[in-house]
Amino acid sequence: MGSSAKKKKDKKKDFQKPKLKVGKARPKPANFTDTSFKSKSVVLNQQSLTTTTPSATSQFSHHLSLLTSRTDSQRRDSLSYLTTAISTRPTNAPLQQPVSVLLPKLLPLTSDGSHGVRTQLLKLLRALPTNDVEDHINKVLLWVRACMTHIAADISTSAMEMLMWALECAGDALVSCPGGWVKTLKSLVAALRWPQDTPETTASGWSSGRASMGKPGSDGKAMVKSLSALTSLLRAGFDDPPLQDRDKGRMVYGFPLVDTACHMLPTRSDTFAHLNLFGPPRDEDSQMYEDREDRQKVFQRRFRGPIERGLEAAKQEGGEIGRAAAGVQKIISEGMKDYEKYA
């Protein structure tokens, strides 16, 4: 009985209001911490104080290292700083860091979960010199293809925008590099959900289980982006820059110097890469299709049927999708006209 009465008394103390007396301080709570001490100095570990301002090169390298930060805002702000630094450099001045150093840091952000980071990344890539990017287009294409079929629709859409940027920078180098033509077309067909296996397709050419990813209403915008990227890829693949070079050579030098550009030193690095002298054996998907005729042949044999079936179904939807599909159909008709003529 004594212990029970004591427990009741202790519980009752918690609900009793303390009586305040005039002239006496308020009682301190049980968890009170005394902060009345004074310190002459505060010591921080790894504190760096300097009177000189860091150079622009060191700041550039510092922000480049912050691209692996855990916070989205820090990565976005660092990309913004790098974009401003590259865009505002003098006209003939070289980059603060070579493209071979920048791209391994930038390309992993292609699959970043933050839309702001991916948007700022595209702005930074557009600020890079196109001639320097052309030598590394194969590395860029590896990341772009990986993100084109990403499960998140917004990441896939950002990859389509990056593919169109790469085609603007070096369209001929992109479709001519190993896997640049066949693998990119396969990734685009997969992103558009146009299966190549005819038994699994419906009568209209669409997959029977067409899943919708992303926010409601975003699937149509993603498809328009994919069709625009397909248009840019086919335009670059069916174009024939060597013929333009030969015509230019004829125009500049004239008779008797005919086809002068064909006998000049090559303008691209790794000229004999198509021979694959020291690399592992390549399958058909990884081959280099440097000639327009080779690209037309593999497109006719493997991709034209599935793509045209998908385009017919897309044109029936109308709107932006229908207009984009009509644009792709026009590029195919114009690009394959001479192939059908001599086939």
Evaluate the radius of gyration: 31 Å
Shape, please? Answer: elongated
Distance between the termini: 107 Å
Parts with pLDDT < 50 across at least 5 consecutive residues = 198-217, 242-251
Largest sheet: none
Residue share in helix: 55-70%
* Helix-strand pattern: HHHHHHHHHHHHHHH
What class do helices, strands and sheet pairing give? mainly alpha
Strand proportion, as a percent range, falls in under 5%
**Strand segment count:** 0
Whole-number average pLDDT? 82
Separate helix tally: 15
What does this structure look like?
The protein has 343 residues and is mainly alpha-helical. The chain contains 15 helices and no strands. It has helices spanning 2-13, 56-65, 72-87, 99-106, 115-127, 130-134, 137-148, 153-176, 182-191, 218-238, 241-253, 292-302, 304-317, 319-335, 337-342. It is elongated and about 110 Å long. The chain starts with a helix and ends with a helix. Mean pLDDT is 82; it is low at 198-217 and 242-251.
